[in-house]
From TrEMBL:
Known function: Catalyzes the transfer of a formyl group from 10-formyltetrahydrofolate to 5-phospho-ribosyl-glycinamide (GAR), producing 5-phospho-ribosyl-N-formylglycinamide (FGAR) and tetrahydrofolate.
Cellular component terms per the entry's GO annotation: cytosol
Residues at which N(1)-(5-phospho-beta-D-ribosyl)glycinamide binds: G23, S24, N25
HAMAP family xrefs: PurN
Protein name: Phosphoribosylglycinamide formyltransferase
Positions bound to (6R)-10-formyltetrahydrofolate: R77, M102, R103, I104, L105, N119
Length: 228
């Protein structure tokens, strides 16, 4: 099975960004999408917390904002997601980006948006899925670490890869220092991944991703130098 967004070459896809906090990756997406020739138009930033700092950032940029507080739903994650899905539908959203959205999504929501839901993860998947990726990378003694943008599937951090960028792990790195180095690359590859999906250059397919001929997944400024 292959998911196609059905992109019209003359129309930008209506895109929502979901956040839980300050949303630095959201800011990178907003900056990339500001020019009119970018294939995605970010029309909504939504959060699961009413105090998410990124909502004010989006408002200052002239982007519509919304939130669905997950707390009143307790452990009923699907009920929360159905409420969130209603908001996305109200805004005629076609594509969703997770940018520090700290909720594990249920299969119902993922299948509802399958092929139209992408994420940025702070490791070179399939290495280090889940949380505490930088601590785990340092503990494992890897020489390269990085980030991955991928389609979201029901299994956490296991969807088809759209783009990746690597950084060296340097002597004396701490989790915070390594995280900051990776975050620079997240801000580069996530806008590239969104553009690829919104333009139709890459689409989700069961078991992988389909790339159009000539699709460029390499963002600028990602040269890797590993110390001897």
């Amino acid at each position: 099975m292959t998911a196609s967004i059905g992109k019209d070459a003359h129309r930008r896809l209506r895109t929502a960004v979901l956040i839980s906090g300050r949303g630095s990756n959201m800011e990178a997406l907003l900056a990339a999408a500001a020019p009119g020739d970018y294939p995605a138009e970010i029309v909504l930033v939504a959060a699961n917390r009413p105090d998410a700092a990124g909502l004010a950032t989006a408002q200052a940029a002239g982007i519509a904002t919304d939130f669905v507080d997950h707390k009143p739903f307790g452990r009923d994650r699907e009920a929360f997601e159905r409420a969130l899905d209603e908001r996305l539908t109200t805004h005629d959203i076609e594509l969703v980006c997770l940018a520090g959205f700290m909720r594990i999504l249920t299969p119902w929501f993922v299948k509802r948006w399958l092929g139209r839901l992408i994420n940025i993860h702070p490791s070179l998947l399939p290495l280090f899925p889940g949380t505490h990726t930088h601590e785990r990378a340092l503990a494992a003694g890897v020489r390269l670490h990085g980030c991955t943008s991928h389609f979201v599937e029901p299994e956490v951090d296991a969807g088809p890869i759209i783009a990746q960028a690597a950084v060296p792990v340097l002597p004396g790195d701490t989790p915070d220092v390594l995280a900051a180095r990776v975050l620079v690359q997240e801000h580069l590859i996530y806008p590239r991944a969104l553009a690829l999906v919104a333009s139709g250059a890459v689409r989700w397919r069961e078991g992988g991703a389909v790339f159009a001929p000539g699709a460029d997944t390499t963002p600028p400024d990602t040269a890797i130098t590993v110390p001897a």
